[in-house]
Task: inverse folding
């Protein structure tokens, strides 16, 4: 047997890859499992997106290799989107890079900037991929804790005291997943000032800025941000296009060019029809986001009722595609708690522990479930 690379010893198969396989097996065995674990939007994209994809198939270049930088029209649509919604001016030729999903960007950014032994700051709790990719490129993960007592914002006293001589990148993610904490201008400003003094690259992962928020925000709209920050964004959550794999990286030209060096050696461009659909999506009016949020508000009320039935507490002001809930005292380990519900009530909920040690005692519900299905889940808990 051929030995695997040493780097694989530092990571495990992604939690949802393993758990969804278990859920699929239960469904195949005849158990009607309700999946409230993953944030995969179940709603359809805008009709104009589907129409753009269909019409694109008639184009003579539809099935050919595409530009490593994406269509100029797509880059222009991204720049216009940032100007319209975030009041950020971007040069579409130099400061925008379309990606096949923002998850791809996490790897590309890490490969472009990290050497063996470099350190990377990422939030606890936070998206597990930040840590996994850091380990895969043989850099060293360095956690910074977020707590409910501090409203899930960074502890700046702790950051100031930190030895950052080997820190190259700091991952931030506002609106925050899994907690649903909104972006705050003050937090962005303090992080920008801190990164400037430490020569650290800030990367804001920003896929949730239109879901149940008061106003979409981008770190790039803050003064001085372009000097030290870049931003990942995505069409997965706000446009119901998770399976299309369309993301983007925005920031200063030199940073984008460094990431392109990696990306251009890793893929051969995004499918033409997908790019045309993405252009149509980015041109959506405000009414599109409001129509989605009307649905998510209704679902959230029901999920809050479900959480209450389980004795869990939540922040009614949180945003995004999830409800982050604290388990009642005495509930025990979060993974044991959710496994019991999965086996007995056939409801899959995500344990907070997969997002880090600060997720202990918490669970996460997805809003990507129809109202009738959430009502069914409530009945199962009540019975």
Result:
């Amino acid at each position: 047997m051929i030995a695997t690379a040493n780097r694989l010893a530092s990571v495990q198969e992604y939690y949802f890859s393993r758990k969804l396989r278990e859920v699929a097996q239960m469904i195949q065995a005849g158990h009607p499992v309700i999946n409230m674990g993953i944030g995969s939007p179940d709603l359809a994209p805008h009709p104009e997106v589907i129409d753009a994809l269909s019409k694109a198939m008639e184009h003579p270049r539809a099935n050919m290799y595409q530009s490593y930088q994406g269509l100029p029209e797509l880059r222009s649509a991204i720049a216009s989107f940032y100007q319209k919604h975030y009041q950020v001016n971007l040069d579409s030729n130099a400061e925008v890079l379309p990606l096949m999903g923002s998850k791809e960007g996490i790897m590309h950014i890490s490969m472009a900037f990290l050497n063996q032994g470099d350190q990377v700051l990422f939030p606890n709790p936070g998206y597990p991929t930040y840590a996994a990719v850091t380990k895969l490129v043989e850099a060293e993960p360095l956690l910074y804790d977020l707590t409910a007592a501090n409203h899930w914002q960074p502890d700046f006293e702790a950051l100031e005291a930190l030895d950052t001589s080997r820190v190259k990148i700091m991952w931030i993610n506002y609106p925050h997943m899994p907690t649903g904490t909104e972006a705050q201008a003050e937090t962005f400003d303090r992080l920008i000032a801190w990164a400037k003094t430490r020569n650290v690259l800030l990367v804001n992962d920003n896929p949730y800025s239109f879901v149940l928020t008061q106003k979409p925000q981008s770190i790039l709209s803050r003064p001085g941000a372009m000097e030290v920050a870049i931003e990942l964004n995505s069409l997965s959550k706000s446009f119901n296009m998770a399976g299309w794999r369309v993301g983007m990286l925005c920031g200063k030209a030199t940073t984008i060019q460094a990431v392109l060096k990696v990306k251009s050696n890793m893929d051969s461009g995004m499918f033409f029809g997908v790019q045309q659909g993405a252009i149509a999506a980015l041109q959506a009016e405000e009414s599109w986001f409001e129509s989605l949020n009307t649905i998510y508000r209704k679902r959230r009320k029901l999920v809050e009722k479900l959480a209450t039935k389980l004795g869990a507490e939540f922040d009614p002001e949180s945003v995004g595609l999830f409800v982050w809930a604290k388990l009642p005292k005495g509930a025990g380990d979060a993974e044991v708690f959710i496994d019991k519900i999965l086996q007995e009530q056939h409801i899959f909920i995500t344990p907070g522990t997969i997002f880090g040690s600060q997720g202990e005692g918490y669970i996460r519900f997805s809003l990507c479930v129809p109202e009738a299905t959430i009502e069914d889940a409530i009945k199962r808990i009540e019975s």
